[in-house]
Design brief:
binds iron/sulfur cluster, alpha/beta, 6-stranded mixed beta sheet, Lambda Exonuclease, Chain A, globular, 6 helices, about 35% helix
Length: about 200
């Protein structure tokens, strides 16, 4: 899903929220994409999965069940979000208004549900929560990630102060890579290099 930059915004300072997921996956993505402006030659696995979820929307079932379980009183799909304070923008699959007066972002992944959410998914979900909070002006206590392939299911990701601080720190680090044009340390998860489109140019 692509997101348009907010009309009044400067492309030099704003970043799409997808960069948060990428930076959390490996900080060097920010350097290659934002500093060297190298387009990815091939889709890495999670991006393929992200794209497929668009087609998977038709397969969604039990919408009423999900709404009831989460206490949803209003649901909007494909919602544009932006934050002046974070200079971040994006679109969320669903933005939910809940009976307890809070809001929640809901993101679909066309992948099986892992035992626990990946670190980069947690950062992306927290970033969506921060964006929704600022865009709607409602408190957000949690973000939801629904996995569309077997085993299906969802994770509720609490937007704790610690998680918020960690994601804000990551966004600052991401911006710093772009502004200072410095090559960051590689990901600690070296297995991620296997699926990486930058592996032929990256000094790992
Ligand atoms: S090859 Fe590994 S270290 Fe280099 S950008 Fe890709 S994931 Fe990061």
């Amino acid at each position: 899903m692509t997101a348009a930059l907010p009309e009044t915004s400067d492309e030099q300072t704003w970043l799409p929220v997808t960069r948060v997921l990428e930076h959390a996956f490996c900080p060097r993505y920010t350097y290659y994409e934002e500093v060297l402006r190298i387009p990815q030659r091939q889709e890495i696995r999670y991006k393929v999965l992200e794209g497929r979820k668009v087609h998977a929307r038709r397969e969604r079932t039990n919408r009423g069940y999900k709404r009831k379980r989460l206490g949803v009183i209003e649901k909007l799909e494909d919602v544009a979000l932006s934050s002046e304070t974070l200079r971040l923008y994006g679109r969320i699959d669903e933005a939910l208004r809940l009976a307890d007066g809070t809001a929640a972002p809901l993101d679909y992944k066309f992948s099986p549900m892992p035992d626990k959410p990946r670190d980069y998914v947690v950062h992306q979900a927290t970033a969506y929560a921060l964006l929704l909070e600022e865009t709607w002006g409602l408190p957000v206590r949690a973000a939801y990630v629904y996995y569309l392939r077997e085993p299906r299911g969802h994770h509720r990701i609490e937007t704790t102060p610690r998680r918020r601080a960690s994601t804000r720190k990551l966004i600052r680090a991401m911006r710093s890579v772009r502004e200072q044009a410095c090559l960051p340390e590689p990901t600690r998860h070296r297995s991620r290099c296997r699926d990486c489109s930058f592996r032929t140019i990256c000094p790992q």
